[in-house]
Amino acid sequence: MSRQPRTRALSTAIAVAATLLLPAALAPAFSFPRADAAARPAPAEPAPKPDAAGEMKAKDAVLRYASGARSTQVTISDPGSSYIKVHFASVRLLPGDRITVAAPSGREVHTYHGDPTKGRTRGDSPFTVHGRTGFAALSVDGDTAVVTLRSAARRTDAADLARRGYGVRIDSYYRGYSEAEFAAANPRPFSVCGADGRRDVACYKDSHPTEYARSRAVARQLVNGLGSCTAWRVGDTNRMLTNQHCMESAADLKASEFQFEYECATCGGNNPKPGVKVSGAELLKLSPLSALDYALFSVTDFAKIQPFGTLYLETREPSANERIYIPGHGDVKPKRLSLYEDADGGAYCKIGTVASGVNTGYLCDSSGGNSGSPVLAGSSHKVIALHHLGGCPNWGTRISLVYKEISGLIDNDPAAPLTRAPGL
């Protein structure tokens, strides 16, 4: 693919790349005995692109100031969608006026006082850019977004403002796939090794409070409005990690948003919280697919995500059979925790292959969208690997190798042991 902005081409590229997760020599999970799985050598490369999470659709809509009114609005609805992310070709507002992009219920509201690419106003929400004129608002969970132009005063000069070019133009939106669409768009063996042992993180809030606390530093990444990965805070400063194949460039970072606390409120429920969404700021360091497959970066609005705590890196190598666990957003679902290899209460996840190339191997369950998830050591609750490849065994880059390359860019010294995340 050329290095033009990926927004226009990513939808096709993701769909094609979804079939490339596993080399031909690596069979699906059910084709070899589990006892042999963790001894298999790691494949050379992980999936080259994020999992396909949605698609872009054209939308030509204009919002103008309305005579005698303080607001005018348009509703974008695409039944069955898991999110709606609106792209604005242009925004020109009078001082003090604003546009909002909101869920019909009002549980999510994103506000902009103009085009933030020309200068963000205090109180503006984070935003993303996609290699073309304008910007995209943060996504709204669900299949409907209400876009409203709000004026500080009733307008008597609406016609004149329209002639002068004031108002808002929407040229497209991104919609998230339903669960069935996601499965169809990513047709490959998932990396659930036997029975799926993952459960909502809320299921472990009381029985495994430290594992639950650590999971709060993990976010769902939406790449270019189209792809899905997992990312997480590292260290005490504004730093986050994911896979390089989830973020190939600074342009990809600027087109990404990160949703913290996207998790079900109750164990086994279908009631995810809206969470807290931020966007990408600065790309600090990359290691390509052929090396360690990581991306270190910062985000906007860092203060909003500090209450979720952070993760620290192990500087040692993994040990055979040591207990591990993986929080993440497989299948673009609310955050789940993989503690057990099979059924809940069975054998804990553990390291099966200590080292194969740059990787370490395990049978802890994962699936599309888990790329970038932290693999934590049960003994210290620090990150021991960066998950980046499925296949049973699943594989993560040994974090000791990553640490050697980024140690000067992060603060990896926890001031005190953390049992529960701030605010719990």
Describe this structure in words.
The protein is mostly beta strands and 424 residues long. The protein has two domains: 7-52 and 187-409, Thrombin, subunit H (Beta Barrel), CATH 2.40.10; 54-176, Jelly Rolls, CATH 2.60.120.290. The protein has eight helices and 25 strands. The protein has helices at 7-17, 34-37, 158-163, 179-185, 209-215, 250-254, 302-305, 399-406; strands spanning 51-52, 54-63, 71-77, 83-92, 98-102, 109-112, 127-128, 135-137, 140-141, 144-150, 167-176, 199-200, 218-223, 227-233, 240-242, 256-260, 276-287, 294-299, 324-328, 336-338, 351-356, 359-362, 374-377, 383-389, 394-398. Residues 1-47 and 416-424 have low confidence and may be disordered. This is Trypsin-like peptidase domain-containing protein.
What are the main properties of this structure?
12% helix, elongated, single chain, Jelly Rolls, 2 domains, mainly beta, 6-stranded antiparallel beta barrel, Thrombin, subunit H, 8-stranded antiparallel sheet, disordered C terminus, 424 residues, disordered N terminus
